[in-house]
Amino acid sequence: MPAGAAPQKPAAKPTEKKSADVRKLLRAEGSRTASLTKQAKRAGRQARAQLRGDSAVSLNKRVWGWAAVSSFVLLMALILAAVYSPLLAIERLSVRGEKLVSEKEIKAALKGQIGKPLPQVNDDEIAKSLKRFPLIESFSVISAPPHTLIIKVTERTPIAVVWVDGYGYAFFDPAGVRVGRADNRSKLPTLEISGTPGKSPSFKAAIEVLLALPAELLPRISTMTAKSKDDVSFRLRGYAGQKVIWGDPSQAVLKSKVLAALIENQSKNDRVTYDVSSPQTPVVRY
């Protein structure tokens, strides 16, 4: 070796170099294996957690499902018990609103309801039982647990008096149903019609006018005559017996106002005729 030259390192042996490469490769492979192992463990934990969560959700669904079924069964049992239980059987009938129809007769007609549970009461059956009473216009049913059934009836309201052959003067409602016997003290108007009330065209014409009149005018009418639908007239109560030619049922409000003004300007003792059949051009005849 020449003087002053630096000494050279001996060259690495090929065998030692290969060993180092193998060690590096093994370390890298070990790192990847450890990483994969951690990932596998993490995935396993997540899968087990998911499984536990799914199981809990499934269990909750089953619990709620059974609870809903149980509640429905219990509700149906309670309904059936209420419908068929003798604990709510009818023992007493109470009738309200009757005046023209006997309470005793109504109770006798409904005696078939005694012993029946309140929830089983059928309005159609009651209507069928009360159909024999034409004076009952409508009714309502009220359950009063544990054992009382209340029947509230609405009777027909008379609107006029009509002479009936073989019977005398009788009250009639707007449908033509005879409500009861009338006397000379009645404040309702007496209808002079032809035919049977309810079927007679003249009765229907008179009723149509009565229903169109203001309520305060009805007590002042003594008699009403209906020759046709367009020819209705009536007389007012009082000494003079003043006559009113009403015509047809149309323009009832205007006719009433015009008639009120004419009556106000006339003495009660004047025997006159008020013609309001054409309310725009009323006429007073002496």
TrEMBL record:
A GO cellular component entry from the record: plasma membrane
Keyword Cell division included in the entry's annotation: yes
Single biological process term from Gene Ontology: cell division
InterPro entries attached to this UniProt entry: FtsQ_DivIB, POTRA, POTRA_FtsQ_type
Region described as Disordered: 1-21
The POTRA domain, residue ranges: 88-156
Compartment(s): Membrane
Presence of the UniProt keyword Metal-binding in the record: no
Keywords for the protein's UniProt record, in alphabetical order: Cell cycle, Cell division, Cell membrane, Membrane, Transmembrane, Transmembrane helix
Biased composition (Low complexity): 1-13
Transmembrane segments: 63-90
Name of the molecule in the record: Unannotated protein
Organism listed in the record: freshwater metagenome
